[in-house]
């Protein structure tokens, strides 16, 4: 087939994926015990590579979950006794809020329409909210919250916990973990791996909160923070982990580190720039996100006069896949993923074909 | 390497695993959208194959989780308002009990020492317990609860829910789902796949209970039964699933169906018989589980006079891996997995080498 996927996740697999998978299979790593030194070394390798890539200090653990959605639940269980607060401007930030209600917490929200973004100065955090839930990159609408605004929001509210959903942007956002309490992402987006693994970065301060509330409120049973943290000290997980996913993630993170995360970020911005410029100048296309500062660098959402299904079909014939809009935008929007797995050349090819429509 | 793994999980990969993985990669299935018809067909294929293999009626959904441990939590959330009851005779049945406490339920237990098993006639279920948690195969001790006893226990207590942990035995136990409310397993045991996926079989009756309690008690947020069930009706999952794991599981289940589940069960019993006979007649070895009816067919635990570490080392030099005992049994016991991935010939080779010690 040799299709190029510009879909926002599951997305294109990173070019080195197949080689790493081959090594995994040849070394029979799918059969090793998750309580062996061989596993602990593999686990530590991945954590170390991610720590370097994302500049995560030792105050924060890097933990593995079944998916990033699971992180929503675990963060709420660990840091919220009673009240959380959510910035909502799309389907995924809304789900974080829904999770809080489903756990019988009181969830406050500050909601904006799809396509709009948040500045720290506009946000009033309710007095008793224990957690501020932010979304760096809203995969449904292509809105990003600038990292500087996330940092400012925490600085304005130093006693609250702040969580950053970077599911579809990590390793692009350069978060300062001396400020950020917890963040999480999936591997099937910008890391170019098959789905089935979530990564949760979480501070000692969150751990202390979880310890302090557990006698009054349940902090969950499966992958509860205390047990995850304790196992992580020994480079293990409480349950049998997705060893294949953890291995592959470590190898991709190593590849990213070889290239240098700043180079990856620069190339991401370069390709995003090519796409936005093309969309702005091409009749029939316009960026869904009007405010430039809020435009995602990793998921570009395009308003299209031609029905999106027709464009997707035409582009498919050229050997490329792009996503439709999310929810209400399904028929009239395109979502184009801009992850490290797709090269400048492939991006230029996509632009070339879109230009011929 | 070409090592044969007789370890109880992660275990030997099924011989067809590599071919299925190759097909998955070649068809770029790691990049397909989990909201596409292509994914829904893949999902349905796996569910249909499992339904045939395990004889699961349409009254029960077959759902996918990040691991089997997650099923413990989801079953407790869905079926227990206040009180659960647990048959404990090893580390994994104990963990199911611990999960109930961690969710602030009142967990009753009937505990027996490691190596002993349960008969329905001995079990008195507390009056207000809503769920009876049983373990078909206690991976830590090599004790099985005969399927007939599990069925009897439910028949004695028809108003209670009964859950069956078959993590390290499915597809061996022939459960009757007109009686059993819910059961679950992992793919890294008898299905011979890499870890990272749990399978949860659950009845409409559990769904109704979850619906009835959700206004008073949280039934969880991530992978809660109502949302999982609703998505499953459409052959989807709430969050991005482990598409690779689900695909591979479907193909292995299809392979098992081609062989016939009764043939797989017969071969399992044949190989278990070879192992137990050898252990019983060989000086220095004895089965840890004294009562024959309670001896696991899939995880054989052996008391050894020679330190287990020495035996594991010698066997490793012969190209085979066997497990040590669990917890307190680590130094003096061996655990030998007997899953479909290891052939009669490989089992005979292991017995031959153990006989030379």
UniProtKB/TrEMBL annotation, chains A, B:
Pathway: Amino-acid biosynthesis; L-serine biosynthesis; L-serine from 3-phospho-D-glycerate: step 2/3. It catalyses: 4-(phosphooxy)-L-threonine + 2-oxoglutarate = (R)-3-hydroxy-2-oxo-4-phosphooxybutanoate + L-glutamate; O-phospho-L-serine + 2-oxoglutarate = 3-phosphooxypyruvate + L-glutamate. Keywords: Amino-acid biosynthesis, Aminotransferase, Cytoplasm, Pyridoxal phosphate, Pyridoxine biosynthesis, Serine biosynthesis, Transferase. GO terms for biological process: glycine biosynthetic process, by transamination of glyoxylate; L-serine biosynthetic process; pyridoxine biosynthetic process. It holds the Pfam family Aminotran_5. Residues 128-326 form the Aminotransferase class V domain. Its cofactor is pyridoxal 5'-phosphate. Its EC number is 2.6.1.52. This is phosphoserine transaminase. The lineage of its organism: Bacteria, Pseudomonadati, Bacteroidota, Cytophagia, Cytophagales.
């Amino acid at each position: 087939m040799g299709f190029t996927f510009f879909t926002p996740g599951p997305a294109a697999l990173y070019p080195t994926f197949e080689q790493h998978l081959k090594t995994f299979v040849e070394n029979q790593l799918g059969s090793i015990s998750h309580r062996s030194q061989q596993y602990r070394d593999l686990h530590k390798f991945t954590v170390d590579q991610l720590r370097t890539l994302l500049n995560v200090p030792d105050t924060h653990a890097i933990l593995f979950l079944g998916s990033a959605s699971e992180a929503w639940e675990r963060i709420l269980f660990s840091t919220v006794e009673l009240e959380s607060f959510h910035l909502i401007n799309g389907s995924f930030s809304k789900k974080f809020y829904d999770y809080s209600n489903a756990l019988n917490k009181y969830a406050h929200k500050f909601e904006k329409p799809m396509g709009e973004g948040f500045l720290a100065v506009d946000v009033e955090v309710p007095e008793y909210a224990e957690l501020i839930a932010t979304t760096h990159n809203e995969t449904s609408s292509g809105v990003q919250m600038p990292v500087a605004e996330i940092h400012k929001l925490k600085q304005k509210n130093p006693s609250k916990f702040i969580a950053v959903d970077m599911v579809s942007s990590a390793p692009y956002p350069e978060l300062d973990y001396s400020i950020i309490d917890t963040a999480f992402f999936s591997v099937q987006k910008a890391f170019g791996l098959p789905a089935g693994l979530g990564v949760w970065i979480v501070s000692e301060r969150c751990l202390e909160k979880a310890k302090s509330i557990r006698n009054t409120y349940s902090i969950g049973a499966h992958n509860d923070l205390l047990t995850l943290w304790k196992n992580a000290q020994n480079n293990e997980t409480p349950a049998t982990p997705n060893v294949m996913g953890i291995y592959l993630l470590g190898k991709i993170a190593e590849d990213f580190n070889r290239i240098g995360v700043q180079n990856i970020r620069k190339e991401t911005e370069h390709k995003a720039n090519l796409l936005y410029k093309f969309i702005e100048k091409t009749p029939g296309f316009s960026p869904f996100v009007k405010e430039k500062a809020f435009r995602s660098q990793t998921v570009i959402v395009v308003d299209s006069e031609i029905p999106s299904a027709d464009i997707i079909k035409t582009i498919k014939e050229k050997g490329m896949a792009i996503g439709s809009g999310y929810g209400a935008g399904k028929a009239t929007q395109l979502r184009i993923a801009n992850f490290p797995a797709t090269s400048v050349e492939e991006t230029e090819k996509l632009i070339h074909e879109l230009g011929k429509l």
